[in-house]
Amino acid sequence: MKSTLEIFVKALYLPFFLIVGNGIAIYMAEQDYSKFALAAWVGLLIAVSFLIEQWMPFRPEFNKPQADSGRDVIHAFVNESLSIVGVLSVPIIASFIPFNSIWPSFAPLWLQVLLAVIIADIGITLAHYASHRYSALWQLHAVHHSVKRMYGFNGLMKHPLHQTIETLAGTAPLLLMGAPQEVLLLLVVAVVIQLLLQHSNVAYFAGPLRSVLAINQVHRFHHLNTAKEGDVNFGLFTTLTDHLLGTAYYDKERVIRSEDLGIGTAPDYPVAYIPQMLAPFKRLG
Q1: How many angstroms from the chain centroid is the CA of residue 177?
Q2: Predicted local distance difference test score (pLDDT) of residue 1
């Protein structure tokens, strides 16, 4: 029987990461905390996610390393470093935009971040959808789909070229609108938090929000190892674009295990980092 504490943690897991996690990040930005302090807060959220997954996993086998732990750390370091470089490049990029900003800088910072999340979600979702339709994009995206277990940290596991494509799809409208560097930095934080939630190995409570938010309960279906089953639920933050595309899907009776994940047509997909970086080009060749 579940303890009262476990029920309490599962009930608060989603609002803690979604509201408290992003809320404290926004507060830190408003109070001019250093970028190192913000990075430390994100690191703490990753650690909390990992600890709760170990304590009360949705599926215990998802916690068992498959020669992938070190690889996932490298993926996270490389990809988040690229995100930070991108944010630092915003002033340079902005100098080449030939028209005035239309970004609502007068709005509260939390509202600006929410607007950025909504806009970026549409672009990233469409890029993700295209990555399951066009071979060149799929070969890059396949790196992410090669996972054989679902836990928060491997949400950050992506080929850096594919992450760049998705990032451009999500942030190009924001840059053209004149979104400030601060908002884009907080968007990066929001993406990291969302990937932790989306790939989490915790059976946290979501209730009716499951039909709106792109959380782990719906995203696991996207990682099923056949195109027939896995070409669903492309959204990063929400399922709104999926509903418009007709790709939103959920089956509460379906239990997803390790053997259901991965790439059915490539069961021998490389596991180590460097081979994964080279695999898309070998397969295209």
Answers
A1: 23
A2: 53
